[in-house]
Amino acid sequence: MARYLLTRAWQSALTLLLSTIVVFVGVRALPGDPALALAGEDRSPEALDAIRRHYGLDQPLPVQFAQYVERVAQGDFGVSIRTGTPVSSMLTTALPVTVELSVLAIVIASVLGIGAGVLAAVRRGRPAEWFANALALIGLSVPHFWLGLLAILYLSVATGLFPASGFVPLLEDPVDNLHHIVLPAVILGTGLAAIIMRQTRSAMLDSLSSDYVRTAKAKGLRPRAVVTRHALRNSLIVVVTVVGLQLGGLISGAVVTEQIFGLPGFGKMTIDAVFQRDYPVIQAVVLLTAAAYIVINFFVDLLYSVIDPRIRVTGDPA
Amino acid sequence: MTNLSVSETSRALRAAVAAVAVACAVVACSPVSDSGGGTQSGDNQSAGQDSFGAPADPAAVKQGGKLVIALSAEPDALDPTLSRSLYSRYVFQAMCQKLYDIDERAQVVPQLATALPTTSGDGRTVTIPLRQGVRFADGTPFDSAAVKATLQRHLTNARSARKSELGPIDGVDTPDAQTVVLRLKQPFAPLLGALADRAGMIMSSRALQSLGDDFASAPVCVGPFKFAKRVPQNSIDVVRDPNYYEADKVHLDAISWRILSDASIRAANLRSGDAQVADTVSTQDVASLRQDSSVSVLQSQSLGYQGLTINVGNVDGVRTPPKPINRPLAQDAKVRQAFEHAIDRKALVDAVFNGVHTVACSPISPASPFSSAEAQTCPAHDPGKAKQLLAEAGVQTPYTVTMLASNTPDSLRLAQALQAMVKDGGFDLKINPVEYSSLLDEQDRGNFELLQLGWSGRIDPDANITNFVGTGASQNVAGYSNPQLDTLLAQARQAGDVEERKKLYGQAVTLLQQDDALIYLYRQRNLTAVAKQIQGLQVFPDGVIRAAFAGYTR
């Protein structure tokens, strides 16, 4: 196990370094100039030079990179070119929003998706399955922004049940916070719920027709125990993989959802930064996203062995 | 920043929103009429009229309440010296008063000054009398020393965006606490316009000393409201300032600007009551908002313009000496005039913007005190003439021209309408959509034949003309040079008299239309939607939302 962790750790560090280089070079290869984007309508040469000097953009690329890595190693992500605020403080306000949104979306998606998936498998060929399938189809095929706009139109504008935009930090007012974030989380979770439902359903169908389930039934176990303790547990391995893989999709979905609901999260920050060529912010965001991916994948691998003890983690490549 | 840059949302999202709008029209989410809502009474004006909003009646508004304004783009640094974005001015309007302001006719009026400045006979000494008994939000007194410190920061800070606006200021004197004297190297008429914008916002010296370059983190000025909190990319909050010299005129407790970059989402927030004001309403949404009995739409014609820039000499990048380009469009003014004659501006504005925006043929807005008959003359739409000019220039038709345009929906619809239009004049227009930041880059490098962009406009005409068409000027991306025009513009800059400047700018417009390196197309109307429960919110031709003295109806 220790050897496995060590291998994973240096692999992760390498991946991080590589992604840093790719992003650093990539954002600078984009057409467009942050000084121009910032200068707005006043694009006098002195103004542009002053901006470039101030943010060190006049230095050669390798020098800029070395300075960047040195600062990041000390936990300093630099200062946003657009707003002049430290990137780390922008991250500390944006990150909790997106984390809360994503976690809530995953919880909602898992509850809905696993529940509907099990129901569809157990009640195969009956109206309950058709209903669950129809919902899944809608969840998969209707894009977030469309659902989001409909939700705003009907649940905010027409009925006033939920606020159409805005955010209240969790620690400031938990109830108001939930009131603001539930709608975006449901919208964000719909696609994932549909995927989870489909996967749970097919994995459950597989398990339900397997020998061990027949054995369990033959032993006289109650149907509920057969489904939850035997069939579902074995099906979850697929579901966990899917949730892990879909997390990336969730983050890109959060970009759209945050934009629509005006949530001050990571996604909105990324979009704005890319359009403004705000290099320090883009770099920090991508670095953190890469780090998040690495950590999530690591935990998904660990979870396998928890769910199915036959899977053992070792340091040797399989 | 032009209004076209406002849409910083992804293209996909925008397209989707448009799709939803279409679907909504089909499912009848709200009645859509193309009549422009002209039958509505009161402040719901028809498409063609300006409506700036009226001051609040103190007897009819109640004290207190928080106003939420949905903004289309994020303001940049809240530092009057560094700010470059149009949107910062919305926030500054509530918390950073200026030496001068403008009224609804775009005339300069005193704000922190007590009267218009007196200028010496040689035009080189400008004396400004200041208000007495005024305090900054931190309690320190507002006096001539504070004005001097602010102006010196504007002039000396390395990243100052104000330096060029203030022109040839040689020194600032403070004969007493209530008088400031500006010494100029030469007369500079646009100075007054600058002092009615960010250059005239005075900052607290104490805050400048303690915060330095970080002034934007906790800005302190004189204003009805003071800075409270900013969440980057999300919101800016200000609260009422008890130190304000006319605190009894302030009704609201707080104002919050919330950044919602999508026009449909801003409109939805207004309808749901989460916001009371929405800026930059889409021309597509205006009709349906006018039908809404709880909302009124303010509209004011902007001082800026949207137009087409033709690359006539920008080979090595902006601000380098113009070089000849081997293209008929660049070489021959007749080809450019032909292009202008092929455009039907009125049809363009009606088709693309529901007739909300107005036709423009020059950089001078008819709303400007410097407008004249010459400044408003307009080459007629005449495809026959266009073809004739092309024949005279010896160009084979259809003549293919490639246009760079921003990839926002509004901009693309405009480009497509142009494409269809100029065909009759013998042009084959190819559209090359580019993302906004890239567009600016290509523009400055001179990598274009024709491109579509605009300018948000300033009070003084010099700021709307010289920078764009003066030889070697900072934003002369066309690479255009006409010494005769340069002379006219220099004279206008130094002329003290409005009538004289008017005449000179009229002559300049005639030259601009002959050379046609910049073809002016239309002038935007600043569209602001306001909930009817709010009184006293105003938008003047500078496009800035004036919310400081608004209040909720009793």
Question: Can you characterise this structure?
Answer:
Chain A is mainly alpha-helical. Chain A has one domain: MetI-like fold, CATH 1.10.3720. Chain A has 12 helices and no strands. In chain A, helix 5 runs antiparallel to helix 6 and helix 7 packs across helix 10. Chain A starts with a helix and ends in an 11-residue tail after the last helix. The model of chain A has no long low-confidence stretch (mean pLDDT 83). Chain B is an alpha+beta fold. Chain B folds into 3 domains: 168 residues, Dipeptide-binding Protein, domain 1; 135 residues, D-Maltodextrin-Binding Protein, domain 2 (3-Layer(aba) Sandwich); 219 residues, Roll (Dipeptide-binding Protein, domain 3), CATH 3.10.105.10. In chain B, 30% of the residues lie in helices and 21% in strands. The relative contact order of chain B is 0.17. The N terminus of chain B is likely disordered. Classes of the chains: A mainly alpha (318), B alpha+beta (554). Chain A: It holds the Pfam family BPD_transp_1_N. Chain A: It is found in: Cell membrane. Chain A: Keywords: Cell membrane, Membrane, Transmembrane, Transmembrane helix, Transport. Chain A: Belongs to the binding-protein-dependent transport system permease family. Chain A: Its main location: membrane. Chain B: InterPro entries: Peptide/Ni-bd, SBP_5, SBP_5_dom.
**Biggest β-sheet of chain A: count, sense, barrel?**
none
Number of domains of chain A: 1
Which pair of protein chains has the largest interface, and what are the residue counts? A-B, 57 and 61 residues
The low-pLDDT segments of chain A are: none
The separation of the N and C termini of chain A measures: 14 Å
Proportion in helices of chain B: 25-40%
Runs of chain B in which pLDDT lies below 50 for 5 or more consecutive residues are 1-46
What is the end-to-end distance of chain B?
38 Å
What level of helicity do the residues of chain A show? over 70%
CATH fold node name of chain A: MetI-like fold
CATH architecture of chain A: Orthogonal Bundle
Tell me the strand order in the biggest sheet of chain B. Answer: 9-10-11-2-12-20-13
Q: What is the CATH C level class of the largest domain in chain B, in words? A: Alpha Beta
Specify Rg of chain B, calculated over alpha carbons: 24 Å
Annotation, overall tally of beta strands of chain A: 0
Given helix and strand content, the structural type of chain A is: mainly alpha
CATH superfamily of the largest domain in chain B: Dipeptide-binding Protein, Domain 3
The amount of beta strand of chain A, in percent, is under 5%
Membrane topology (chain A): Multi-pass membrane protein
Main location (chain A): membrane
Protein name (chain A): ABC transporter permease
Domain ABC transmembrane type-1 (chain A): 95-300
